[in-house]
Design goal:
377 residues; alpha/beta; TIM Barrel; 3-stranded antiparallel sheet; globular
C-alpha cells in the first residue's frame, strides 16, 4: 500500500499473537517481522539484493557505528543511508544508547547525555537525546528509536529504577527533538528490568508522551530466556494495542516464537548473520555446526525443505570444506541460509496466526527441533 505516513494495522490475532502490517512511504512491513542487522550500513557477507531475496522487508542500522564511521554528516551529503547502502526499503536505526552503555570505562553518564571515547580511534564524542535525533535524521531512517539507557542485568532495583526514570526523561526530550516528520516514525522504549511495577511506570510515561510504536527494551542483556519470557508475559500488554511492539536485540528462533506468542511484532538480532560466519546454521531441526567432521563426506543439503542457495546448490560436504578452508564463500552462503530460515520462520508464524493455529504451529516447531538434526550417513 502506498502511503505518505507511517501506519500500523492489526489484521488478525490468535491468543496474544498478532498479524499486522506497517505501511510506510518506502513500502510495507509484514508483522511479525524480523529485521536483519546492518550495523555499518551492510549486513555482513550479504548484498542488499540478497537480503531482500530472503524475504526481509526492513533492515536495522546502527547509530553509534555510523556516527563514528563514515559519519552521519557524510552519509547525508551522499544522499542518505538508503542511497548509500543501496537499500530502498524501510530502515530502522537504534539510538546508539545500548552500544555507548556497553563501553565500560570509556564513557561518562550525566543528565544531559553520555560522553564517550570512540572504540576506533579514542576520539571524544557526546550523545544526547537531541544529538541522537539529529544523527538519525541525517541518516534518513524511517523508524527512529528514542535515546535511552539500558543497564545490564542483573542489577539492583534502585539502579534499574533510576535508569528507567532517566530514560523516560530522555524519551520526552527525544520526542521534542524529533518534531513533526511525516512519513517517519519515532518509537519509545519501555525499561524497568525484571520489575513489573517499574515496567508499568515506564509504559505509562511513554503513553503520555505518545509514540508511533513502542519497544520492550532492557532484555536479552544477561537475564536468560525464562526471565525474559516472564517479563513478556505482561510487558507488551502495557503498551498501546494499536501500535507496533518491538523486542530489541532478540534472538534465537525459539525466542522469536515465544515473543510472537506473547504479543511482539518486531525483532532484530545479529545472531543469524554472526552465526553464519562462525559455521553455526539454524534449520528446522535445530542448530547444525557445519565445522564438525561428521559433515565432511555428506552429500546431502543442510535442509532438504529449504530453498536458499546454500541448500539448493551445495552439499554439507562442500559447505564444511569452504568453512574449514576459511573461504569467504562460506560466510556468504551460511549467512544467506540463516537469514532465509529466519524469514521463513516469520512467514510461517504469520500464516499460523491468520489460520488461527498458532498453538499448533508452536507445538510442531518444538517437536521438530526436539528430533534433532538428520543422523550421520
Amino acid at each position: 500500500m502506498t502511503t505518505d505516513r507511517f501506519r500500523y494495522t492489526k489484521l488478525a490475532q490468535d491468543g496474544r499473537a498478532r498479524l499486522g502490517r506497517i505501511d510506510t512511504p518506502r513500502g510495507e512491513i509484514r508483522t511479525p517481522a524480523f529485521m536483519p542487522v546492518g550495523t555499518a550500513a551492510t549486513v555482513k557477507a550479504m548484498r542488499p539484493e540478497s537480503v531482500r531475496e530472503t524475504g526481509a522487508d526492513i533492515l536495522l542500522g546502527n547509530t553509534y557505528h555510523l556516527m563514528l564511521r563514515p559519519t552521519a554528516e557524510r552519509i547525508d551529503r551522499l544522499g542518505g543511508l538508503h542511497a548509500f547502502m543501496n537499500w530502498d526499503r524501510p530502515i530502522l536505526t537504534d539510538s546508539g544508547g545500548f552500544q555507548v552503555m556497553s563501553l565500560t570505562g570509556l564513557r561518562k553518564l550525566t543528565e544531559e547525555g553520555v560522553t564517550f571515547k570512540s572504540h576506533i580511534d579514542g576520539s571524544k564524542h557526546m550523545l544526547s537525546p537531541e544529538r541522537s535525533m539529529e544523527i538519525q535524521k541525517l541518516l534518513g531512517s524511517d523508524i527512529v528509536m528514542c535515546f535511552d539507557e539500558c543497564p545490564a542485568l542483573p542489577a539492583d532495583r534502585k539502579r534499574i529504577a533510576e535508569s528507567m526514570q532517566l530514560s523516560m526523561r530522555w524519551a520526552a526530550r527525544s520526542r521534542d527533538a524529533f518534531g513533526d516528520r511525516p512519513g517517519h516514525a519515532l518509537f519509545g522504549i519501555q525499561q524497568g528490568g525484571l520489575e513489573e511495577d517499574l515496567r508499568g511506570e515506564s509504559a505509562e510515561a511513554l503513553r503520555a508522551i505518545e509514540f508511533d510504536g513502542y519497544a520492550v527494551g532492557g532484555l536479552a542483556v544477561g537475564e536468560g530466556q525464562e526471565a525474559m519470557f516472564g517479563v513478556l508475559d505482561y510487558a507488551p500488554g502495557m503498551l498501546p494495542e494499536d501500535k507496533p511492539r518491538y523486542l530489541m536485540g532478540v534472538g534465537k528462533p525459539d525466542d522469536l516464537v515465544g515473543g510472537v506468542k506473547r504479543g511482539i511484532d518486531m525483532f532484530d538480532c545479529v545472531l543469524p548473520s554472526r552465526s553464519g560466519r562462525t559455521g553455526q546454521v539454524f534449520t528446522r531441526n535445530g542448530v547444525v555446526n557445519i565445522k564438525n567432521a561428521r559433515h565432511a563426506d555428506d552429500p546431502r543439503p543442510l535442509d532438504e525443505a529449504c530453498s536458499c542457495p546454500a541448500c539448493t546448490s551445495y552439499s554439507r560436504a562442500y559447505l564444511h570444506h569452504v568453512f574449514r578452508a576459511g573461504e569467504i564463500l562460506s560466510s556468504m552462503l551460511l549467512t544467506w541460509h540463516n537469514l532465509h530460515y529466519y524469514q521463513e520462520l516469520m512467514a510461517e508464524m504469520r500464516a499460523a496466526i491468520e489460520a488461527g493455529d498458532f498453538d499448533g504451529f508452536e507445538a510442531r516447531f518444538h517437536a521438530q527441533r526436539a528430533d534433532g538434526d538428520i543422523p550421520p550417513l
